[in-house]
Design brief:
Strand order of the largest sheet: 1-2
Distance between the termini: 27 Å
Number of helices: 19
Radius of gyration: 25 Å
Number of strands: 2
Order of helices and strands: HHHHHHHHHHHHHHEHHHHHE
Length: 421
């Protein structure tokens, strides 16, 4: 029964949030005349003190999760931390403030003098990365609400073929590049707009996003953490920082005996097998592949920059002013009057079409300057990914891959070695 308590709490959280939403969506009917609407139609913004309280909760949660993963080695404790994070950062704080989305705040602040990033947002961006550098991806283990909701729904994990895993794993790099590009050009925060789970936390997203989130959770029953593995842009940064972690979760609490019981334990393909029983490839072959991929890096870098540069006008379409200018231009060319809210608001604003078209050109110019750098990032990332496949460290035990491992502790129960206190 104890095994199912966290999942009962998860169901309760969904039910409670639905009740709160119903109360807000369907208030008591007002039959008296002269009804006056409240002055505040939106929830009041939290004060700075409460924002720093969220930072304190983040620090405490990361510290406890680190202790549970590295010292206590408690899978059950990590599940309970996931329940807490889902309740607090997910349903109570409604997915905001969010370390995943803070990537955009940092990008906007770096490339726009008019925007000053809130200190709390900056801390939410930096603190999990520092913990990853010190202890691995403990943020993913039990603190991130997006990971927590998926971890609690992963009942029947299966492994994807390695080829599919490699292809899907490239998507977060593309997502990160586009998120930084759109945020730095002051165009759009796509991570927040297309977050599949914030809509579930708030129950106010477009139905398409709620359906998307529900489908991810259904897929997550079999393919654990599909968003974390194949979409999360912040996970790219955590992956890089975690590779250099000073301490990291281990499969066994003591010396590995190569019993191979944990070999298939990880649904994320994050366990590096021991090389004691494997045939070693002739060193000449991986060396040649390494040299070839390294020489291809300039080609892929230039190709990425060229492709993204030419896509700049299309990518600029995510900017609302560019999209509006194109609507106005189509209206003039076709003679068919547009009835979109943006066009109607523009006509009532008194702003001239010449001003709008000039602004459109400026924004496209910004995209042409920024897009090639996104292409360079993608080209280099692609080549580094290929190079990493040629590098195989010689180890004599089973250990987690420090970049891919989510520190979830699923592998603990497969190790027969028990350290008695």
């Amino acid at each position: 029964m104890k095994k199912f308590v966290p999942y009962i709490i998860l169901i309760f959280l969904f039910a409670w949030q639905s009740i709160l939403f119903a109360q807000q969506r369907f208030p008591r009917p007002e039959f008296e005349s002269g009804y006056t609407y409240p002055a505040n139609q939106l929830p009041n913004q939290r004060g700075p003190m409460w924002e720093y309280f969220d930072v304190a909760v983040l620090l405490v949660a990361l510290t406890i999760t680190t202790w549970l993963a590295l010292k206590k080695r408690s899978r059950q404790g990590l599940i309970w931390m996931s329940v807490f994070s889902l309740a607090y950062f997910g349903f109570y704080r409604q997915g905001c403030i969010c370390s995943v989305g803070s990537v955009q705040n940092v990008s906007l602040a770096l490339f726009n003098d008019s925007y000053t990033i809130p200190l709390s947002a900056l801390l939410f961006f930096i603190i999990p990365l520092l913990f990853a550098l010190a202890y691995g991806r403990v943020f993913c283990a039990g603190v991130c609400p997006l990971g927590a909701i998926q971890e609690l729904t992963g009942f029947k994990p299966v492994k994807l073929p390695k080829t599919a895993e490699i292809i899907f794993a490239s998507v977060p790099f593309i997502y990160l590049a586009l998120a930084i590009l759109f945020a730095s050009t002051n165009s759009q925060f796509i991570i927040c707009r297309y977050d599949p789970f914030v809509g579930i936390f708030r129950l106010d997203a477009p139905y398409t996003m709620i359906i998307f989130g529900a489908l991810l959770l259904l897929a997550g029953i079999f393919v654990n953490r599909p968003y974390c593995r194949y979409l999360c842009p912040y996970g790219v940064l955590l992956n890089v920082f975690s590779r250099f972690a000073g301490k990291h979760l281990t499969i066994t609490p003591a010396e590995c005996t190569n019993c191979r019981l944990c070999e298939e334990a990880c649904p994320y393909n994050a366990i590096i097998p021991s090389g004691t029983d494997q045939k070693r490839e002739e060193p000449e072959k991986p060396r040649k592949r390494f040299i070839l991929y390294f020489l291809l890096m300039p080609l892929f870098t230039i190709a990425g920059a060229y492709i993204l540069y030419n896509l700049a006008p299309a990518l600029a379409g995510v900017n609302s002013n560019v999209n509006l200018a194109r609507e106005i231009r189509i209206e003039k060319e076709t003679g068919i009057e547009s009835v979109s809210k943006a066009v109607v608001a523009f006509k009532e604003s008194g702003k001239t079409e010449a001003e709008l078209f000039t602004e459109e050109e400026i924004i496209i110019s910004r995209f042409r300057k920024a897009s090639p750098w996104a292409g360079v990032f993608l080209g280099i990332s692609f080549v580094i990914g290929m190079i990493s496949l040629t590098i195989k460290s010689k180890i004599n035990e089973y250990k987690p891959h420090q970049g891919k491992c989510y520190s979830c502790g699923r592998c603990f129960k497969y190790c027969p070695i028990i350290i008695k206190a």
